[in-house]
Here is the input.
Amino acid sequence: MQVDPSEEGDEITYYCVAELNTADVEGVDDLIGDSTSFQLMGFDETIPILRIGGKGFIGNHDQTIGTHLIFSVEHQASQEEERPSSVSEIQYFGKATETVVFQPVALSAPPSSNDEQKPVH
Here is the structure.
């Protein structure tokens, strides 16, 4: 990412679309649906890492052909219990020209320095 020196002090915001390949990972949809916190590490590096609950993903940056348009959606509460809430307002939020595709990986805790391998007798 390059910033124009004449714009020093001005904050520039970039948006990126994150794609999760979760077909083989059980429970991720439930985690995302429950608004579980997530941790994103090294996003501006070659291989970003995403953690959602106890699930881990590694990413790969990918340039898109064209532009992703991002909208915010606000739902209006439904008066009837049988009908799902209807969309009341859609507003343009931003655009993105990059996608990060995340693939699932197994996460494990790093070995601590106190864990020395001892010979088995």
In short: The mean pLDDT is 75.
